TrEMBL record, chains A, B:
Gene Ontology terms for molecular function: DNA-binding transcription factor activity
InterPro entries, alphabetized: ArsR-like_HTH (IPR011991), HTH_ArsR_DNA-bd_dom (IPR001845), WH-like_DNA-bd_sf (IPR036388), WH_DNA-bd_sf (IPR036390)
Organism annotation: Streptomyces qinglanensis
HTH arsR-type domain location: 14-104
Name of the protein described by the UniProt record: Regulatory protein, arsR family
Composition bias, Basic and acidic residues: 128-137
Length: 137, 137
DNA sequence: GCCACGTGTCAGATTCTTCTTACACACCCG
DNA sequence: CGGGTGTGTAAGAAGAATCTGACACGTGGC
């Protein structure tokens, strides 16, 4: 019966909390139309840079966008962001399944090992299977 | 082929914000295992009734659960809750599409009539789909 | 050197959400 | 009639999220 791989409760929770915000939704929408760098994006959607920075950080932590620092021909460092090819199915069973592996995140939980920051876990029919290595950041 | 009906931005936003909470996720999970009434559910998941009441209200507003007030044989009024057969696909395009119809409106109530709130977009494996009626607030 | 552009981060105020406590009512049973 | 069950709601504290402003740094061009 379980056709698709269920995401961990913490992961799904982070994704939903990240997407459950009008500004962040708009950011993802703007990024879905094409990649952009922080200041340009801030101008496009009319938001202060520090605020956009926070939202982008939240989205990146949830694995919904990825940022790459590039150097323009002028030599200026510009951080480009683009949407990650995520795909989640939101159904009662999926939520129930995820809630099973839901760890009541303690205020201090990350001691040794990966901080649980994982992006792709092919949930839906997204054949996109770029391998994912766990990098201990 | 974009034959699928996209949810309104406000609707998707409400759903994501409602599900982006560990307690509410657990509530949906508990309710997916079977219907229950408020006090019983509060005992089952170990939560105070007023708090559970608030969370249930939030979930019901988002259209994720439905509550029906029934009378037990003893004559006691008991409010039973059960999960609504919702189904949302969370992809970059879906978010972008929803963000297009995102009204950043004030806490003031909506003007009139039932807005086009559509829940089922059967792209995931979920057979049964009885449509629910729209209840404003 | 100074300014325009890019980056990141911090402190503080504000606003929202969450949670507890306490109250209101209705019904049944001893 | 008091005590058990069920319901709903309101006030206020506690906490987390949001947002603004100012600061830091680096590079290219006048």
């Amino acid at each position: 019966m379980g056709a698709i791989e269920a995401p961990s409760g913490d992961e799904l929770l982070k994704v939903l909390a990240a997407l459950g915000n009008p500004h962040r939704m708009r950011i993802v929408a703007a990024l879905a139309g094409g990649r952009n760098y922080v200041s340009g994006l801030a101008r496009e959607i009319g938001m202060s840079r520090p605020l956009l920075h926070m939202h982008l950080q939240r989205l990146e932590t949830a694995g919904l966008v990825v940022g790459t620092l590039e150097l323009s021909d002028s030599g200026k460092a510009m951080k480009f962001f683009e949407v990650a090819p995520f795909g989640y199915a939101l159904t009662p069973q999926a939520v129930a399944e995820a809630a099973r592996t839901l760890t009541d995140q303690a205020p201090d939980g990350k001691s040794a090992g990966a901080p649980g920051r994982n992006a792709q876990h092919g949930k839906t029919q997204h054949g996109k299977a770029s391998d994912e290595k766990e990098e201990t950041q």
